[in-house]
Amino acid sequence: MIRPTAVPFNIVTLGTYQLTGDLSFPSVIGTAAINILGGLTGPIVLDLEEFTISGDVTPGSFAIVIGAAPVSSPITIKNGTIQNFVYGVYGNNLSKLTINKVNFLINILRPFAPSSPTGVLFQNVNSSTISNCVFTNEIVGIQAEDLLQ
Description:
Helices cover 0% and strands 53% of the residues. It has one domain. It is mainly β.
């Protein structure tokens, strides 16, 4: 079990990751608070343990980014809050993603141009599940795009 205590944090090996407290990330465009790298083979569990990952709503900011290289391993993100990122979870080129019991909270009073606040953004994602989640103040709760067409 791995316990990240600061962000940004890269998940580069299989296993279970559990937060031990709230984490704050002064957003940098193009950098996520947590990156789950592509090409891993085997299950990954990110348990927020009822804690919060907070950003500062910088346009283009990401809480959790999954992929780049194809990801076919099961990935689970669960049990916590993601707040004040323009994109809560961004998944690209993957399958077998489960998001369960995550509260997505975006402060829509801050400026977002050119980005629209989105809880979960999928691009080229297959066979995934989102359940028991709450989306508050997003312009878009869940968005899925297939860029391969």
